[in-house]
Design a protein that fits this description.
By secondary structure, this protein is an alpha/beta fold. Helices cover 42% and strands 13% of the residues. α2 packs across α4, α4 packs parallel to α5 and α5 packs across α6. The radius of gyration is 25 Å and the shape is elongated. Bound molecules: 3-methyl-2-oxobutanoic acid. The site of 3-methyl-2-oxobutanoic acid (KIV) has 11 residues, from β6.
C-alpha cells in the first residue's frame, strides 16, 4: 500500500470476466503451474492467464510417488508463496486428496481456506458427478471453481495407473455427461486431462465454459503444463503430451559441477567476489593484536 492507501501500480490482475471474454473471442487461454515464489515470478512475468498451484507439487516438489500424500496445510504453504510472487495471473489452488471427497461441508471449508489464508482467487477439484454437490456448495459461497475430468491423478488407484481416459463410447459419454454436470454446478472452466483429442474437442464445442487441455489435443479452449515438465526439471518418466521447452535440469547440474571444481581448485571465490580492507586499518589491527594478544579459549 502507498501512503494514500492505494495499492502499488503494476500489471492489472486477470479477472474471471476478462478470462471469459478472452475465451469468447476464441483466444486460447494459457495456464501454468507454479509452486513457490521464484516459479510464480517467472510464470507471472510470462503473461499467462492462470497459475495453478497444482497438487502435482506432491511429486515434482516434495518427491512423493503420487499426488495422494500432499496435505491441505502443505498446499496452503506453497499457495501463499505463489501469491507473494504473482501479481497478474488468476491464481487457482488445487484441492488435495481428501480435502473435498468427504462431502460439501469439508469442500467448502477447505476451498475457503485457499482464498482466506493463501490469497488464491479460485480452486480446482478433480471428479465429475460425485463432486457436483461440493462444487455447488463452493460456488454458492462465491468461490470460483475449476473442474478436472479425464485422467484425474487422485483416482490413480481406481484407474489402475496413469491411463488415457474416455477411449470407449461409454467412457466418452460419461465424460461428456460429467462435463455438463460440472458446468451446471457452476464451474467457470474445466481441465480435461489425458483423453482423445476428438473427445476433448467435442466436449469443448458443446460447453459454454472454456476447457483447459493437458494431453487432450489442440481442440480445447486453452492449455496447461507443469512447470517442471516444461523446463526439463523433472527426471521421472513424462507422458507423451509433455513438451520440454528447455533442459534446465542439465544446465543446473553442469553449473553445480563447475562450482564444485572451482571450489576444489581454489579459483572461486576470486577477487571480484571478495571484500577489501584498507592497509591502514589492517596494519592497525595487526599491531593491536601483537600488543594485546587475545587469549585462546580453552
Ligand atoms: O496438479 C496439477 O498440476 C494439475 C494439472 C496437471 C492440471 O492438476
Amino acid at each position: 500500500m502507498s501512503a494514500t492507501g492505494a495499492p502499488p501500480s503494476g500489471p492489472s490482475k486477470i479477472t474471471l470476466p476478462a478470462l471469459h471474454e478472452k475465451a469468447a473471442r476464441s483466444e486460447r487461454l494459457v495456464m501454468m503451474t507454479a509452486y513457490d515464489y521464484p516459479s510464480a515470478r517467472i510464470v507471472d512475468d510470462s503473461d499467462v492467464d492462470m497459475i495453478l498451484v497444482g497438487d502435482s507439487l506432491a511429486m515434482v516438489v516434495l518427491g512423493h510417488e503420487s499426488t495422494l500424500s500432499v496435505t491441505m496445510d502443505e498446499m496452503l504453504h506453497h499457495a501463499r508463496a505463489v501469491a507473494r510472487g504473482a501479481r497478474r495471473a488468476l491464481l487457482i489452488g488445487d484441492m488435495p486428496f481428501m480435502s473435498f471427497q468427504t462431502g460439501p461441508a469439508d469442500a467448502l471449508r477447505n476451498a475457503g481456506r485457499f482464498l482466506k489464508e493463501a490469497g488464491m482467487d479460485a480452486v480446482k477439484l478433480e471428479g465429475g458427478k460425485p463432486v457436483v454437490e461440493s462444487v455447488r456448495a463452493i460456488t454458492r459461497a462465491g468461490i470460483p471453481v475449476v473442474g478436472h475430468l479425464g485422467l484425474t491423478p487422485q483416482h490413480i488407484r481406481a484407474l489402475g495407473g496413469y491411463r488415457v481416459q474416455g477411449r470407449t463410447a461409454d467412457a466418452a459419454r460419461a465424460l461428456y455427461e460429467d462435463a455438463l454436470a460440472l458446468q451446471d454446478a457452476g464451474c467457470f472452466c474445466i481441465v480435461i486431462e489425458g483423453v482423445p483429442a476428438r473427445l476433448a474437442a467435442f466436449v469443448t464445442e458443446r460447453l459454454e465454459i472454456p476447457t483447459i487441455g493437458i494431453g487432450a489435443g489442440v481442440g480445447t479452449s486453452g492449455q496447461v503444463l507443469v512447470f517442471h515438465d516444461l523446463l526439463g526439471l523433472w527426471e521421472g518418466k513424462s507422458p507423451r503430451f509433455v513438451k520440454r521447452y528447455a533442459d534446465l535440469g542439465d544446465r543446473a547440474r553442469a553449473a553445480m559441477a563447475t562450482y564444485r571444481d572451482e571450489v576444489a581448485a581454489g579459483t572461486f571465490p576470486a577477487d571480484e567476489h571478495s571484500y577489501g580492507m584498507s592497509d591502514t586499518e589492517w596494519d592497525a589491527f595487526l599491531a593491536a593484536i601483537e600488543q594485546a594478544p587475545i587469549a585462546m579459549v580453552p
